[in-house]
Amino acid sequence: MAQPNLRTRQLTKRFGTRIGVDALTFDAERGEVVGLLGPNGAGKTTTIRLLSTVLAATSGDFSVAGVPSSRPAEVRRRVGALPESAGYPRYQTGLEYLTYFARLFGHNRADAIRLASGLLAEFGLADRAARPISTYSRGMRQRLGIARALVNDPDVVFLDEPTLGLDPAGQLQILHVVRDIAARRRATVVLSTHMLAEVEAVCSRVLILDRGRVIKWSTVAEVTAAVGAPRSAVIRVPLDQIGTAVEAVGALPGRTVSAADERPDALRVTTTGSSDGMNAVLAELLRASVPILAFEVEGTRLTDAYLSLTGDAGAAADADTAKGAP
Amino acid sequence: MAVAGQECRDLWLSGRGPLLLFAFSLLLSAFTYLAATNQAINFLEQREAVNLTLQIAVAVGVLVTLLVSADGISGERERGTLEGLLLTPVSRRVLVLGKLAAALTVWFATFVVSVPYIWVLGRGVSVVGQALLLSLVIGTVLAVGLAALGLLVSGLSASNKVSIAVSFFILLALFAPTQLPGGLPKGWFGDVLGRLNPVGAGLHYPTAILVNGHEWTQDLNYLIAPGVLVVLAIVPLTLLSDRIVQLEPGSVR
């Protein structure tokens, strides 16, 4: 049986008495996007630094494309990473920057320039190739950083909050890049983010950390189903039908109905349990001949599951931010 | 080679290197002017004027080199560019040696700038060649030792400011005793102190040759301290590079 592309076993990092990551164990396959979630200080960045060999583990091990962590230089040849707060030399051009990194991965000068030019074109930066990085926008720098993470055509790519500080268009662009890396390059992408909508959009599985420990490792659907998190939606109906609507939905088991934020023509419906809970609500309204003027799911199911799993104030704040994400 | 080349480009094309060199040139110009006028009114013998300028050129050139190297690791950390380098398969030893090589280009540039000053002051007393060779040899040894020390300090410092301040203090502590009025305390203790101080001993050697007319082989023991400095700085820098080049100073990788 083929070995997973990324394999970790009991990977642990301690900083003195503080636990950074505790007994991290998971496997990820080629072409898969893994979401790395957790409140601030949960160990996401430490995990990425361990798996990219920037930090050495206190115990445990991992392998990338079959190369064990005991050979860190070889592991680095097979991974690419965009660190959380990556800095860029102000005076270098995008082309010089990528060429330099390509040379550090063993390419000769001509090959390095060719590779750098190709990556700049792929990431829509060809027209800025000869301009200093200091003139790039934040989105362009993030794309340049991801391009740098790909100079060695890695088997595993780690992206630490790649959409942080980007406008919605920039965020979508990055998500497109993430999908593309997994699909076209067949690399495993580990995406660390607080934006849960992003995770739902691109990730096949999620790894949720809390205080360095894995609290959930499964598919998005399994996470939400396992937690059985409540889900709410705002439904707008004609004002004269509001009583009928409340009566119809209120009769359904497992649903609660309340007024929606001072809007007399809207209801907030909260449901728990099966994934088709909202479908049943809509079906019941139609059966009662109540026209549905608007229907809006509040937040995402992953957000609810995440909050239920981590359950701290910091996480709630992070998730609130995520609700504004595309 | 790629690391050293890029470090050099960063240093010289970012404007940091040229700015430091310009400041060095201004200082050396002012100092050479003073030495030349003192020489004109017979306060200084011509050989002494050459030696004095050489000493300032070496001391300041080495200081500038030390300051550049003191920014090498801590500066990268603060600018957020270190992690990118650590993600490459290049060993940390190669990274520090590349930075050391780049820092040394500053010393060689200051040496080149000092050549015309020493040539102008030394015309007519046939010491120019000797002075330049002494400056190159002593300066290079001190620059290698202190640049390596600067990188060590940079790797272990909590911030770039701390690194630069500590490095500056180290050079000041080593250089100041050589500039005391009347020199170091006399007697065996002063002699030992003078020989132990790599900067003091290194700068004493050209004085002995240029001013006192000693043979090159006569005071070789003054070169022991600068040599020891090179060994004591380079060896830990290369052997402990994995511990020194860290995202967090002093942490175990």
Keywords:
heterodimer; A: 326 residues; alpha/beta; 6-stranded mixed β-sheet; 12 helices; 38% helix; disordered C terminus; B: 253 residues; mainly alpha
Quick rundown:
Chain A is of the alpha/beta class and 326 residues long. Chain A is built from 12 helices and 14 strands.
Structure description:
The complex is a heterodimer of chains A (326) and B (253). Chain A has 326 residues and is α/β, with parallel strands linked by helices. Chain A has twelve helices and 14 strands. Chain A is globular, with a radius of gyration of 23 Å. Chain B has twelve helices and no strands. In chain B, helix 3 packs antiparallel against helix 10 (198-210). The two termini of chain B are 25 Å apart. Chains A and B meet through helix 2, strand 6 and helix 3 of A and helix 1 and helix 5 of B.
By helix and strand content of chain B, what is the structural category?
Answer: mainly alpha
The separation of the N and C termini of chain A measures 39 Å
Mean pLDDT of chain A: 86
In the sheet with the most strands of chain A, the strands line up as 6-7-8-3-9-10
Q: What is the C-alpha radius of gyration of chain B, as a whole number of Å?
A: 19 Å
Describe the secondary structure blueprint for this structure.
The complex is a heterodimer of chains A (326) and B (253).
Chain A: E1 6-15, E2 18-28, E3 33-37, H1 44-51, E4 59-64, E5 67-68, H2 72-78, E6 79-82, H3 94-104, H4 109-122, H5 138-149, E7 156-160, H6 168-184, E8 188-192, H7 196-202, E9 205-210, E10 213-219, H8 220-227, E11 231-236, H9 242-250, E12 255-260, E13 263-271, H10 277-287, E14 294-298, H11 301-310, H12 313-323
Parallel strand pairs in A: 3-8, 3-9, 6-7, 7-8
Antiparallel strand pairs in A: 1-2, 1-4, 4-5, 9-10, 11-13, 11-14, 12-13
Helix pairs in contact in A: 3-4, 8-11, 11-12
Chain B: H1 2-13, H2 16-40, H3 46-70, H4 74-79, H5 82-86, H6 92-122, H7 128-156, H8 160-175, H9 187-196, H10 198-210, H11 224-239, H12 241-244
